[in-house]
Design goal:
With 353 residues, the protein is of the alpha+beta class. 32% of the residues lie in helices and 23% in strands. It starts with a helix and ends in a 9-residue tail after the last helix. The structure holds adenosine-5'-diphosphate and magnesium ion.
Length: 353
């Protein structure tokens, strides 16, 4: 993995007035380009030739320039960083970029918003649970397959948007349904409402909710729509016998009871401070996936230490960002603003790795 010192050196060599934001044209790229434009930062879209026309069709969110690549996977594995370096680019990682770039992301010479160490911690489910434990979050019980004594969810390695996960009630059912056990995790099934708060942690800001040396901001909240579990009452009501599945299809906005906000902010702060202690922090956007039960207790089951697609609901800001900013503040714009402020104060090394 490229060292933090090397990235600091590279970002120090950048002309702070000519910094550009680059990302892969996918996932939440429109939001990122749109937000950067609002902050007056130029953008680079890493894009396949066929996709370019899609992005060009959105006049307020198309990137300022394209870096055309035939195959994003190959591009990340070889050479795209040289091009980006010449352009003073800072890369913003999102779900598709992380997926396409794979291990190459660890070696890329371009500064990345956030901390690449965090990718190692969120990639490995056991390590992610260690991190969440260190943050003192309430977690679902992890259960050995032989000891399944309640409804459980079985998760396979790698984030695939819930695809292929299954519910089981006993070891016998587990044995019957799960063929490959490599890297499988069995968790107790949490009943309640799923809540996915989107946070932004700034080590250089004093606004927002104080956390570590800076502050954490609640930028929005969403809930994912998963097929078929989220409308399972329909086939059930028709008398079908059906197994739940958890494939993400989309996102919907959610606004919390105001009395829950204190807990939500505290959870964000604790995750930031645990990351700081364990692997050097998580500057930038992140999301904690939780279930809130009938006693208003939050249980966390995943952290994404990067921008999540649920933020696409709020290109003009959310019912939370509107109370913190005069401007329409999307997550994409917030990232661009952080880059701008850090560049001005010569603190880019604090927000990239
Ligand atoms: N412990 C749990 N109890 C109930 N549902 C869960 C639990 N963990 C995950 N889920 C459901 O499965 C979906 C995918 O799980 P997640 O761990 O987020 O996997 P991925 O890494 O694919 O995003 C979640 O969005 C949620 O609906
Ligand atoms: Mg998830």
């Amino acid at each position: 993995m490229i060292t933090k010192e090397k990235i600091n050196e590279i970002v120090k060599g950048y002309d702070s007035k000519k910094i550009k934001i680059a990302t892969l044209c996918s996932h939440c790229a429109l939001q990122l380009f749109h937000g950067a434009r609002a902050e007056g930062i130029k953008t680079i879209g890493i894009c396949t030739p066929e996709r370019k026309k899609v992005y060009d069709s959105f006049s307020q969110a198309a990137p300022d320039e394209y870096l055309l690549v035939d195959d994003p996977k190959e591009a990340f594995a070889g050479g795209v960083d040289e091009e980006l370096l010449k352009k003073n680019a800072i890369l913003v990682p999102h779900g598709s970029l992380v997926e396409y770039s794979g291990n190459a992301l660890m070696e890329i010479k371009v500064p990345i918003v956030g901390n690449r160490n965090s990718l190692l911690w969120e990639r490995d489910r056991q390590k992610m649970f260690e991190w969440m434990k260190e943050a003192k979050l309430q977690l679902p019980k992890i259960i050995k397959p032989e000891e399944i004594d309640r409804p459980c969810i079985v998760k396979f390695p790698g984030a695939k948007g819930g695809r292929g996960y299954m519910a089981v009630n006993s070891y016998e059912e587990f044995e019957r349904k799960v063929k490959d056990r490599e890297g499988v995790m069995v968790q107790e099934y949490l009943a309640g409402i799923r809540i996915y708060p989107h946070y932004f942690y700034s080590p250089i800001s004093k606004e927002g909710y104080r956390a570590s040396e800076g502050s954490v901001e609640l930028m929005g909240v969403d809930r994912r729509y998963e097929s078929n579990v989220d409308e399972i009452y329909r086939p059930l009501s028709a008398g079908m016998s059906i197994q739940p599945s958890f494939t993400v299809v989309g996102n919907e906005p959610i606004v919390l009871r105001e009395s829950l906000l204190g807990e939500i902010l505290e959870i964000g702060k604790n995750v930031v401070e645990a990351a700081e202690r364990m692997f050097g922090g998580i500057p930038g956007p992140f999301c904690i996936e939780t279930v809130c039960d009938e006693n208003l207790q939050f249980y966390a089951f995943e952290i994404s230490s990067r921008i999540v697609a649920g933020t696409n609901l709020y290109p003009r800001g959310s019912p939370y960002s509107v109370y913190a900013y005069k401007e329409e503040m999307s997550m994409g714009r917030r990232i661009a603003r952080e880059i701008k402020l850090a560049a001005k104060e010569k603190k880019l090394h604090k927000i990239v790795y």
